[in-house]
């Protein structure tokens, strides 16, 4: 919550849950205005062509996440698309642990790529390595302070 407080949100006036519902409602109306980064499909294809399985683990609601991934035409790159059952992002860790177990993966062979401190926390809870991209919520400096590899753009993924 401190992230949102720093942005000026005052949860004594309106609860986090109320703001979440309001944000998600507006986001659903306008998600098709959002664009993928130019290099997304190129990087996904390169990883797939190397025989590396890719999944999405997101704090988005799963049914909407699947719809968005299909809308952008990138669903073909993913073996699994895992979201949450609600909008409050409280169980991404649990969903990640379940995904690891369902696919019988060795977490030490998984690389979680994300753009938030929470993504780093999820990787630690599921036992995977983490690569963070500094083009989201947090600055390069903030992400690097976690002691993990940080890149500025997807183009840096080899």
Automatic annotation (TrEMBL):
Pfam families: HAD_2
InterPro entries on file: HAD-like_hydrolase_sf, HAD-like_sf, HAD_2, HAD_sf, PGP-like_dom2
Protein name: HAD family hydrolase
Biological process according to GO: DNA repair
Gene Ontology molecular-function annotations: phosphoglycolate phosphatase activity
PANTHER family reported in the protein's UniProt record: PHOSPHOGLYCOLATE PHOSPHATASE (PTHR43434:SF1)
GO terms for cellular component: cytosol
């Amino acid at each position: 919550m401190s992230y949102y407080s720093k942005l000026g949100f005052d949860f004594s006036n309106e609860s986090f849950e109320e703001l979440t519902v309001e944000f998600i409602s507006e986001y659903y109306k306008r998600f098709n205005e959002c664009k993928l980064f130019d290099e997304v499909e190129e990087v996904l294809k390169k990883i797939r062509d190397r025989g590396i399985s890719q999944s999405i683990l997101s704090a988005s609601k799963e049914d909407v996440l699947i719809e968005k991934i299909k809308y952008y035409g990138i669903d073909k790159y993913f073996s699994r698309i895992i979201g949450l059952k609600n909008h409050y992002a409280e169980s991404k860790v649990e969903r990640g642990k379940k995904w690891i177990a369902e696919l019988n993966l060795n977490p030490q062979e998984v690389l979680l790529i994300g753009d938030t401190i929470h993504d780093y926390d999820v990787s630690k809870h599921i036992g995977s390595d983490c690569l963070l991209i500094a083009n989201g919520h947090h600055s390069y400096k903030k992400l690097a302070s976690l002691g993990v590899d940080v890149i500025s753009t997807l183009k840096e993924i080899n």
